[in-house]
């Protein structure tokens, strides 16, 4: 399998974006906070976090349920808004992680690469751009996903503009909120994005190091309750490596899995169907 080595510009742009977003969060010391800004941050965390878990992960990477093209596109769009790469790139890396979990070929294994490389550093290496996408070819039949992959960078300025304009308008219309366009932008976009990043990244780092291992999956994956709750169910990662096809990651009733609850809701209103779950494990 030949791999294409891309320009170092890609690595440099990821470093600039990641550093820039983290630094932009410090803007909070200038703009302060308000209830409206906190609500914007939580809403954007929920929308985009669930876009990644429901759209990128459970639908596109694992095909763990069925849905129509429009719903698939909307879920992939929300996932793309989380600034974690385009859908085809994300899926390709994730499938590679499942195929090579915690071996030398696993680009974000804390076992072989160390914690920080697994958490964030791997995206700033050439390896992050060497994925040739052969393992996500099944998704190439959807031109709308290829479109998102190709133009996903523009989602960044698009969101900045939209959140700022909406935030400025709402702050003006409701002066009692005590907010401003810039404040809503810092909270609703930058802080929310960085928070969503680290929650997703912790699935790769923390959930391959700390937590329970009820299943002997032959890798280091763990169930971590903290990431289970914060990561919309993705922290039940040992369950996931045992049953990667499953739309439900929190297998026990007490394993909170918000993505699964959303899928049940979407299924009840007919937007998704054929939710796959492991036959011998549900309670
Ligand atoms: Zn894993
Ligand atoms: Zn997975």
DSSP strand count: 2
Report strand %. under 5%
Average predicted local confidence, pLDDT: 94
Radius of gyration, whole Å: 19 Å
The level of helicity is: 55-70%
Question: How many distinct helices?
Answer: 13
Bound molecules: zinc ion
Q: How would you explain this protein's 3D organization?
A:
The protein is mainly α and 283 residues long. It has one domain (47-273). The chain is 56% helix and 1% strand. It contains 13 helices and 2 strands, in the order αααβααααααααααβ. The protein has helices at 8-25, 28-31, 35-61, 69-80, 87-99, 110-113, 115-119, 143-151, 155-173, 181-204, 225-230, 237-242, 258-268, and strands spanning 66-67, 272-273. Strands 1-2 form a two-stranded antiparallel sheet. The radius of gyration is 19 Å and the shape is globular. The mean pLDDT is 94. Bound molecules: zinc ion (2 copies).
Feature tags:
globular, mainly alpha, binds zinc ion, single chain, two-stranded antiparallel sheet
Quick recap of the structure?
The protein is mainly alpha-helical and 283 residues long. The chain has helices at 8-25, 28-31, 35-61, 69-80, 87-99, 110-113, 115-119, 143-151, 155-173, 181-204, 225-230, 237-242, 258-268, and strands spanning 66-67, 272-273. The chain contains 13 helices and two strands.
Structural topology:
Blueprint: H1 8-25, H2 28-31, H3 35-61, E1 66-67, H4 69-80, H5 87-99, H6 110-113, H7 115-119, H8 143-151, H9 155-173, H10 181-204, H11 225-230, H12 237-242, H13 258-268, E2 272-273
Helix pairs in contact: 1-10, 3-4, 3-5, 3-10, 4-8, 9-10
The protein binds zinc ion (2 copies).
């Amino acid at each position: 399998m030949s791999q294409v080595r891309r320009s170092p510009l890609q690595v440099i742009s990821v470093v600039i974006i990641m550093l820039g977003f983290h630094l932009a969060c410090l803007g909070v010391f200038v703009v302060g906070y308000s209830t409206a800004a906190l609500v914007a941050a939580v809403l954007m965390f929920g929308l985009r976090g669930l876009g990644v878990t429901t759209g990128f992960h459970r639908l596109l990477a694992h095909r763990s349920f069925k849905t129509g093209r429009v719903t698939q596109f909307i879920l992939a769009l929300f996932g793309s808004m989380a600034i974690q790469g385009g859908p085809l790139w994300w899926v390709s890396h994730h499938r590679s992680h499942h195929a090579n979990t915690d071996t030398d070929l696993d680009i974000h294994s804390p076992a072989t690469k160390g914690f920080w490389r697994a958490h964030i550093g791997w995206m700033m290496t050439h390896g992050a751009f060497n994925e040739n996408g052969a393992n996500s070819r099944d998704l190439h039949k959807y031109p709308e996903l290829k479109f998102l992959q190709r133009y996903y960078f523009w989602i960044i300025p698009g969101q900045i503009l939209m959140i700022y304009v909406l935030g400025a308008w709402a702050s003006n219309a409701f002066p009692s909120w005590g907010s401003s366009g810039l404040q809503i932008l810092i909270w609703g976009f930058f802080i929310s994005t960085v928070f969503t990043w680290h929650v997703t990244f912790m699935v790769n780092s923390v959930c391959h190091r700390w937590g329970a291992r009820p299943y002997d999956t032959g890798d280091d994956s763990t169930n971590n309750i903290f990431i289970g709750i914060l990561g919309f169910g993705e922290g039940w990662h040992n369950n996931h490596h045992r049953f990667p096809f499953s739309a439900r990651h929190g297998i026990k009733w007490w394993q909170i899995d918000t993505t699964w609850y959303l899928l049940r809701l979407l299924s009840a209103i007919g937007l998704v169907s054929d939710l796959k779950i492991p036959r011998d494990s549900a309670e």
